[in-house]
Amino acid sequence: MNAFMLYRQEKYPVKTKEDLVTGSKKAAEDWKKMSEDDKKPYVDKYNELREIYKVAYEKWYEVYGKNYEALKKVYE
């Protein structure tokens, strides 16, 4: 997920398949016209979520990482 996707999710929620297509087009048009200041809340939220994910992934990898790597080799 990136900042644009957060914006798209908030402004153009998907309820149908058509919403996905039309909402994405409208969101992309809007996003291109937005100033950096207007995009900033979404960029900040993305950065916050990315940091949370990094910490969670590091904790997960400490516990399960070696087993995951071994299992991955078995199923390759």
TrEMBL record:
Presence of keyword Hydrolase: no
Cellular component terms (Gene Ontology): nucleus
Regions recorded as binding DNA: 1-61
Molecular function per GO: DNA binding
Entries under InterPro entries matching the protein: HMG_box_dom, HMG_box_dom_sf
HMG box domain boundaries: 1-61
SUPFAM superfamilies: HMG-box (SSF47095)
Classification via SMART domains: HMG (SM00398)
Protein name: HMG box domain-containing protein
